[in-house]
Amino acid sequence: MQSKLPNLGVSIFSQMTGLANQYQALNLSQGFPEFDAPTLLKERLAHYSQSGFNQYAPSSGVPALQQQIAELVERKYGLAVNAEHSVTVTSGATEALYVAIQALVSPEDEVIVFDPAYDSYKPAIELAGGKTVHIALTAPDYKVDWQQVAEAITDKTKAIIINTPHNPSTKTLKQADIESLKVLLEQHDLYLISDEVYEHICFDGQAHLSALRDESLFARSFVVSSFGKTFHCTGWKMGYCVAPAALMTEFRKIHQYVNFSSFTPAQLAIADAMAEQPEHIDELSAFYQQKRDLLIEALAPSRFKILPSEGTYFLLLDYSDISELDDMAFCEYLVKDEGVAAIPLSVFYNQAPNDKVIRLCFAKEDSTLIAAAEKLCQL
Fold it and tell me: Could you tell me which residue ranges the Aminotransferase class I/classII large domain spans (predicted)?
């Protein structure tokens, strides 16, 4: 059989977590929390499962959860959306991204992505028959050159994918970026896929500049979010997409044949948690900023250059003063010889620069972060 994705193998996340397990290393590679989901969420999951809510949910989502999402959007971003027609619950943000791409992209369409990019974008675009146009962002600031974006747009360009806060660069788009993006979308009549899975994890008082804050931007957008990131339950694979009704109609046509519906007890449990403990979301930035600052302080005596983290639960380290190895080889060395698993940034590029930068995940217990930093400070 001829492969549809001949150049893809096992993901870097599976590789590094496998090595971490093999060498019993501290796993700061794959982006999942080491701590558990909120107690209320787990209690409600058990309650709904034991109470018989174990059959298919409506394909677009349990109405109670759709309504909570709509209320969250209005509370955070000031945009009133119709819960029934504009909100769809998905089995993780990756499914939402895949479905949005399939809904938009036709053969020979081009989609602009910013590298380093989340690794699901390109395969989904190629499976739709489209082509990714890569614009590389480089260390240390990973700023978007919007003139370069304008020059990359052709008559085949269909959409732009943004990710803010950005994984893996940890940067956030600023208002000037949003204004430049709007101009290009409107000038060329393009669509936007806005990957906002870390929307509630912004640091140092920065507001998250969601596509949902601007009605004209939202009018041409699929906005993707993640409950797994927000509620420390990545294994539940729960996410959602918000889009204008006309775009959501096309989204749902594909969603129903990808997954049909998502885990019913989890949807009901999340709806309750959002209604009864809204402070969990409101306090998330402060929660993770404490962990970011703890890791930065613990790494201060090291030979790494620490790049500023504006959002997400990741921290980038420049190791150019430590080793001449490329980043993949350096990460293999770290996990095998030093007992710390990290992620090389080059794997997120179509054509990687020579930056010597690795990514650490700080969604871990404080003791794990301190222990990992102690090892890294010995280099």
Answer: 26-375
Phi and psi for 4 in degrees, rounded to 5? Answer: -80, -20
353 burial level (CB within 10 Å; 0-12, 13-18, 19+)? middle
Mean pLDDT of the residues in the chain: 96
User: Tokens 């675009």 sit at which residue?
Assistant: 125
Task: Centre a 10 Å sphere on the Cβ of residue 10 and count the other Cβ atoms it contains.
Answer: 8
d(CA 346, CA 155): 30
DSSP H or E stretch at residue 132: strand 131-136
For residues 239 and 197, is the Cβ–Cβ distance under 8 A? yes
The pLDDT of residue 17? 87
Q: What is the pLDDT of residues 231-262, one digit of tens each?
A: 999 999 999 999 999 999 999 999 999 999 99
Q: Where are the domains of the chain?
A: 12-30+283-376, 39-277
Contacts of 375 (CB under 8 A, 6+ apart): 26, 338, 339, 340
- Alpha-carbon distance of 313 to 24, in angstroms, equals 22
* Of 282, 279, 277, 275, the residue nearest 63 (C-alpha): 275
Q: What is the pLDDT of residues 57-69, one digit of tens each?
A: 999 999 999 999 9
Report the pLDDT value the prediction gives residue 208, as an integer from 0 to 100: 98
Task: Report the CATH number of the 39-277 domain.
Answer: 3.40.640.10
Q: Is 178 helix (H, G, I), strand (E, B) or coil?
A: helix
Taking the C-alpha atoms of residue 97 and residue 132, their distance in angstroms, rounded to an integer, is 14
pLDDT(30) > 90: no
Give tens-digit pLDDT for 267-317: 999 999 999 999 999 999 999 999 999 999 999 999 999 999 999 999 999
114 close to 137: Cβ distance less than 8 angstroms? yes
Using CA atoms, how far apart are residues 35 and 202, in angstroms rounded to an integer? 20
12-30+283-376: CATH number: 3.90.1150.10
Please give the pLDDT value at position 33.
Answer: 93
Look at residue 324 in the predicted model and tell me its pLDDT.
97
Which residues, 6 or more positions from 232, have their beta carbon under 8 angstroms from its beta carbon? Answer: 33, 35, 36, 37, 38, 363
How far, in Å, CA of 195 to CA of 113, rounded? Answer: 11
